[in-house]
Design a protein that fits this description.
- The structure is a homohexamer.
- The first copy, chain A, is 35% helix and 23% strand.
- Chain A is of the alpha/beta class.
- The first copy, chain A, has one domain: Ribokinase (UDP-N-acetylmuramoyl-L-alanine:D-glutamate ligase), CATH 3.40.1190.
- In chain A, the strands form three sheets. In chain A, strands 1, 4, 9, 10, 11, 12, 13, 14 and 15 form a nine-stranded mixed beta sheet that branches. Chain A has a four-stranded mixed beta sheet with strand order 3-2-7-8.
- Chains in contact: A-B, A-C, A-E, A-F, B-C, B-D, B-E, C-D, C-F, D-E, D-F, E-F.
- The E-F interface holds E 18-21, 23-24, 94-102, 104, 169-171, 240-246, 268-269, 273-274 and F 71, 265, 267-271, 305-306, 308-312, 316-317, 321, 324-325, 329-336.
């Protein structure tokens, strides 16, 4: 089994039930997620091995996060312990014309205080073939950025494929560096990039050109390829928000020459769209490891389409579920 | 801060969960509402001051209703105490092609036994600029009608703007008077009327004429204006029921000359439509106090559109939420 | 009141809440159902008398199933007691593009070990005018098939109308007989057949012919009528799955000459579609007893349309609810 | 099977969960009970036939009450329909040193407006051997008292045994009669009396004399026997409140000569004590029908002891459960 | 109505349900508390006016905390806004021999970053007669200690009575000062001290002397009185832990001469003991304002005894509830 | 880390909430347990390695059981896959004088159909030092008994310590063998025996002799030691049932010479006593590996005492929690 390693923060997620407003809620659901963990949870369900790298405080809340990782087959062997608190976020689930709201409370977390040398990257990467990180990680703190760069360098040396999800978050990047100066050299060592036009503008001041959406996507991919020549696959997902519970969803993959396009799905009655992008990334990593590009793209879109029907941050569907949807069963027939 | 006073009955609402039938429910959600209270709760969220006038029994259930009012910043300083019981209603939440069912159990309530002289209207209206009542209040009992007329007269004398929502309820008006003879002189003193064709027919035997919906609305407004010359704004909301969880929603405002029209919203995945009309009224009062007419109308429609996504009788969205929707964000994007 | 008797297995249903995956659920809803019981529960709500024939173990779980039957006015006077266990099934409620999953755990149940002579059919059929069974029953075990044949013979002798729902389940029929050899002589004695193209193929190797859906339906009905000359009404329901929570639903009835067609309903925001076919059958039996064919068909389609909005296996709507929908109220208006 | 008929009001019970105060509760449990119904539900579980006589409004809440009766095997064949509302009560479950609170909202109920002639007592009593009523019934309204007297007279004529539970409620008896003048002639026709010293004082101004508790009980029984010579068994239960969740519980039975005494139980960790007295009465009726007096008394005390462990108004334990406790198993061993 | 002002931190409390371990919980209850807020909530229920001084971030979680304060009649007119986050704590409810666990996550909160000058103390104290603070507040941060001292000085100048609860928390006091050097001059200006032997040792290195518990209490009070001559009442509560759900509870009050003793309560089946000390303090402040010392002490003990039966941080019982318990009703009788 | 291997059946447990009767429950909690799994879960929490051997069907319910094992650090590397169903049991939680009820539904399970050769015992025992089984396993079926004997033989050959818990279940042993003939040769190879007088009588017809409880325990141990000379430690737990929620709990350990005695704990307010014996066994295995006998016994008693406060089958407390209780903290103080 191929093994994927990821670096990122793990957060406690506290979400209201039944679309209640925060002010109405006297109880909240508690789960654990985070962009990179969501990626790993998703691909572990498809049968890959995974190893989550993060830093957690020594308390029972963090211990519960660890239990959830083990439950879903995510490796926890190289996690650093220390610091004060687990970051968390509050989620008010929207409905219809009312969007969901997220309140982050992740400052001063154990992960924000991670430092170079805390992780034994050589050991963590042993037997691994892939390293994944997202733009959230270096946005958290100088320490997190340092550790991310450290990981990228070791991974690069050891010959792992490196993937990134741009994942720009405006409320991060508060430690005195601009995203651009940090991200540039990190992305430069990646082979697989999950990009986006807004993030590309924020990080690298790239403006795609074109009249149609496809032209804009093609242009963005070409400009990114030019800027980051080591990139082999550049992927862009495309969400249209019709309401909080009705979206369309598709993606394109640029292999340096061609722009492959996926099917576009119409997703109504959305249960939980948090982590849909991460589920795409997880399924894409799986796909790029076991399928040719077009099928990898289709697999990733179908898998993340299904994520919208799963409560929580992480995608819990199986490979068979995804293949069923790819095979055209969008109808939600009862499986007996 | 401008202050709005309203008179009406407060009811305990007992609703089934997860679309269960009454016969399946072994637990019910408990909340407190009522047309005029819902109006005040909504506008308090936008930042106006409010004062709810009603009559409550001296027991812990009524005390809990008071706590909810305070929680949502609704004034409770002039509420009369006495009588036997808090009226209540049972709500079976429908779904899809099955409509919701309401069973009222409000007879013999403390409010139904309210009498003239129980409320110190002069004190209640001090510092207030607006008085609101709905057609439910005089429909409850002779006493409630008397107190409503008493309030209208004092408000009128003291120069408050008076608004009414016709709100015709066929299962009220059981105390020996016809709605028409009671409502006529009350509406005659109002400046703002939230009307409807069915209620206008029941109350005043008014039949609008016209070939198109807009013509019918224009006609109804003109006939009402003619009948009630003191009315300055006549408003009609327009709901189309596609299913129990999918409606369209818009409104028009007649200022004596022009019929202003709002945007029409397509509302799917409705969480709770009870109180949507009240949330419209609350937002309209807010809008008419702070905006010109067209924006007031647009604000009221957008606010009440959002109410459909909020559990409970009352609208709990903020001015920012409404402005966001008015600004075109109907897509339910996640706000981070 | 006319009385309908049915034979079938009663199952405990354990379903996840809020669209959770099995792996996320730490609690499950518990209810009791089964195709034939669902039929009876539905028609009891419309005011017919019913009597459920099954075999239950002597434990508190089965006792609770009995209580549910009594609650919903289903007769329990002729149920055999004995055997080891109540069959059960696990239901993972899907959403959107993810279909629901059912895991059956019904082998070795008390009903599977039913044997001829355990039921006093003469007594059970006294005062009854109708007997109903579905293809699930003879698929369970040789004993169940024997008892079903026994019932059909006595019912036939005693002049009851006999109805069947083909209800082919691929995971049954494990006791060494092919469906065809068992079903042939059972269906031969039925006057009312709820058929389906897939089941007709599996049971009787019948292939309808035609270019349009209507031609295919007509063809299937004619071939079934030819094969089973005693059949007086052949009915086919028609579901289109747009997503797990959005279906269309209609039916046709063939009276030996004409193919009557029902309205087609668009059902969004489905709450629970398990048992929808059974609710159709129940309402159809009611309709065929009290209405002419077209109205019976329309009643059955409207009733089962409403079932999609009801949690649980059984249809709990009233005749008034169905008539309201038949009268064109598809809009889910609030009933006060 | 012997059949017991009872007359009384059925109430919706709305209770807070997890010992929450009313002001904290956003949901309440909904069940149906009432003193006489609780008696019947209890004895139905032991295997007697029962028939509940009451008056219910024609709405879905009352329909749900009926379903609960059927579920627990209580007959509903002679219930009158009509009137406005089902009476209800709110229950705030106490804990430890905090007692439970009940807020009644039963005025103006359908049952309060029952009148003579609404019940066909001859039919209801056919095949019955026992009629039960409690002091709550005549306390509700003049109509309820009239119907209760009517029932007692017919029962007496038809030779049924008549039992009463004094059940004095200070917040009833508001219709202009004193309890004494109403109760006297009703109790005079009873053979079995569940009395109490406080109620005996309120109803009949009887003061027991004696130095010890036993002497007081003996004295009360003798005075009641003297006052009501037709009484054959007089029973007194004895509860000591140590905390809201810890009581002791015993009873005595006077047969006109001897004062039989039961075991005294120590009941900790009480789940729900509402209806414990009713469960005693139900088990006593069962016991007096099938056992000699001492065993009947012991059975009644043990059964009602178990009621304290059952959520809701009614006792749901089986005869085997009671016999197990009577046999000395007070230890709550796991039954596998 | 007399008005009490308090300064302290408000925390979100996230607690597991039904005694689950953190690792089992997929949902948590959410409430808002904090030592000083709990004091105010308790005394507001008895009918005093109150004003809570704290600092809150500008987000919907803090807004919900504000709503809870208003609901329970706690004044919120002088609360500072700003900073990053609301402090929070996780509570794992123990049972029997397993104690509850609290995990604090309050570092870096808005309140921890409060600074002198942020609160208009003169305005806040207008019309007030009492100021309360606890040892938690100066333990939080230098800023909190500065603001607390600032408040004490203004209160002292304006002639308010000042009370303190020692409330030593070992996991606070991390900002470079020892508790002793900070507390000394603060306590020196207090008239009412809720002390404890452990806290007195930690803060002031005071060791009581004596052979019996009463002698030790007397000694501690005398030593405190000597150290803090301005103190007029020194109070010590006395909890004995028999299990997580069974405690005894009493208190003594030293008025400079005599040691008054309260009744000792035996509290079984505890629902929630968090905040019991705060509820004592709140009731004591009420008592000292309206009663003589012995009754004030008894009232405070009885009130806080009842707190053990109330879910959440704050005491929600009424004066009547307390008086009922003081009157000897420890038995938890049902109040109808 | 030392590794313990166990063989046994894994069951789905469906339990009612809040002490409801089965007939009241519309939802049940779902967890996974089984005697041997409970033993491993408990000792994994203390930091030992474990490996669970069982046989599971290939469905999502069994997959969820696997996830729970991983979550709690129980090894799942040698589990056989196949068969039809996961066994299950229903648990009705009792209260006070009402005992809990268990309804087993475990016949025909995947584990019941396990056969010799399905498990690679040599591989499973690699690196392990201990093998545990209970009397439930050979009671399930001939196949389970064969596999258990097979495991014992390999473990014995490979030099592992073998422990057994007699665990006699009267409703097993249905496959044609008497417990005695099967158990004799299995127990003969064990070094550690958790015995009981009832099981010793059922299995081996051993009657202890003595006047006091201690003499009876000593006698039982001596007779067992005589019958099974290879046994090195014989342990007996001692539960006294005061009510369903109040027990006392202690144990003795016989080392071939002396009878060591533990402290006796008084456990009130029990949350869940299912699995307490298993938690004792798990903690005993841990203790015997790391402590001398007396401390091992004390550790096991304290650990299992804490189990009574934990919902579910398995003990989830840490070594620190146990040591805290052993250190005398029986009072359930709040740990901050």
């Amino acid at each position: 089994m191929k093994k994927v390693v990821a670096l990122g923060e793990v957060l406690l997620r506290l979400s209201t039930k039944d679309h209640l407003k925060f002010s109405q809620a006297i109880e909240m659901n508690a789960d654990y997620g985070g962009s990179e963990l969501n990626v790993l949870t998703g691909l572990s369900n498809f049968g890959m091995k995974s190893e989550m790298i993060t830093r957690l405080p020594a308390n029972d809340i963090a211990e519960t996060a660890l239990m959830q990782m083990r439950k879903y087959n995510v490796g926890t062997n190289f996690i650093a312990k220390g610091g004060d608190r687990l970051g968390l976020y509050f989620l008010e689930k929207g409905a219809s014309v009312r969007g969901s709201k997220i309140i982050y409370d992740r400052a001063y977390s154990s992960f924000a205080h991670i430092e170079k040398g805390m992780i034994d990257w050589k050991a963590a990467f042993k037997d691994a073939t892939w390293f994944h990180w997202s733009g959230i990680t270096p946005g958290v703190s100088q320490g997190a950025a340092d550790v991310c760069m450290e990981a990228i360098e070791v991974a690069s040396e050891m010959g792992l494929t490196i993937s990134t999800d741009f994942n720009y978050r405006a409320n991060l990047w508060n430690y005195g560096k601009t995203p651009g100066e940090v991200m540039e050299k990190m992305v430069a060592k990646c082979q697989v990039i999950l990009a986006g036009d807004y993030a590309s503008k924020q990080y690298f001041d790239i403006d795609p050109e074109g009249a149609t959406e496809k032209e804009l996507q093609q242009s963005l991919c070409e400009k990114l390829k030019e800027r980051f020549p080591s990139s082999e696959k550049i992927i862009i997902t495309n969400r249209k928000n019709i309401s909080a519970m009705h979206n369309t969803w598709s993606a394109v993959l640029y292999d340096g020459k061609n722009l492959l396009e996926s099917e576009s799905y119409n997703i109504t009655d959305i249960v939980d769209r948090i982590g849909a992008g991460d589920s795409f990334m997880g399924a894409l990593i799986y796909g790029l490891n076991y399928y040719e590009d077009q099928k990898a793209l289709d697999f990733a879109v179908a898998a993340s389409c299904l994520k919208h029907t799963i409560y929580g941050d992480a995608n819990l569907v199986s490979k068979e579920d995804v293949e069923d949807l790819m095979g055209g069963n969008v109808s939600g027939r009862v499986k007996r």
